[in-house]
Design a protein that fits this description.
CATH topology: Arp2/3 complex 21 kDa subunit ARPC3
Strand content: under 5%
CATH architecture: Orthogonal Bundle
Mean pLDDT: 91
Number of strands: 0
Shape: globular
Structural class: mainly alpha
CATH class: Mainly Alpha
Order of helices and strands: HHHHHHHH
Number of helices: 8
Distance between the termini: 25 Å
């Protein structure tokens, strides 16, 4: 879901950059008011490293195209949507400089998709279903978060005039639907395990 440089017109890319910068500043303001900011910053830094490693790994798939996990839904369920957006921004920035993934002009658009939309969609669906069943809420949050991010990715490419809706839906939806199911199931296993061995991590205040 990484959009490289040169795909999005600069006028559009600047809009996404502005949104991303606003989100980062809101996160910083919220953390500055947090009573346990040291622990939060430390945990966030660890999750940035985990996100960078996890989302950079190429995993073979039956579709013939290597898949990359997002990791952001896991971050959101632990720390909250604003934190997920920041982790996505920092991860995308490091992926560009260290691995050549994505781009600088497109960093804002990628952050809006993989950070803002994925984070808040995950959190909303997670919270809506949290009282029904914990594992179901993890799955539904992760699933709907990635689906909404995929739809946003398609919309951004449509606005940029990259391809037609039919082409984008036919090529992107089946691929990301496969990733969505796999990552959602993996998050259920990982987060359920963390909830047992370190419940205070899962019960941290969400920002």
């Amino acid at each position: 879901m990484h959009i490289p440089d040169g795909i999005i017109p600069l006028s559009q890319a600047m809009v996404y950059w502005i949104i991303s910068i606003i989100v980062v500043f809101i996160y910083m303001f919220k953390v500055s008011k947090d009573e346990d900011k040291e622990q939060r910053v430390f945990t966030t830094a660890l999750l940035v490293v985990a996100s960078l490693i996890g989302s950079s790994l190429s995993i073979p798939s039956p579709l013939g195209i290597p898949i990359h996990f997002f990791i952001i839904p896991l971050v959101v369920i632990i720390l909250g949507p604003w934190s997920g957006s920041l982790v996505a921004f920092l991860t995308l920035l490091m992926q560009y400089f260290l691995l050549g993934m994505g781009g600088i002009t497109s960093l804002g658009a990628n952050t809006v998709t993989i950070g803002v939309v994925l984070s808040f969609s995950t959190y909303i669906f997670y919270r809506i279903t949290r009282d029904l069943d914990f594992k179901f809420s993890i799955f539904s949050g992760s699933f709907m978060g990635i689906i909404m991010a995929t739809l946003t990715h398609i919309l951004i490419l449509l606005i940029a005039g990259v391809a037609t809706l039919e082409v984008l839906v036919a090529t992107l939806i089946p691929f990301y639907l496969f990733i969505t199911v796999i990552e959602s199931l993996a998050n259920v296993v990982v987060i359920s395990f963390l909830a047992k061995i370190k419940p205070q991590l899962i019960n941290m205040k969400k920002i």
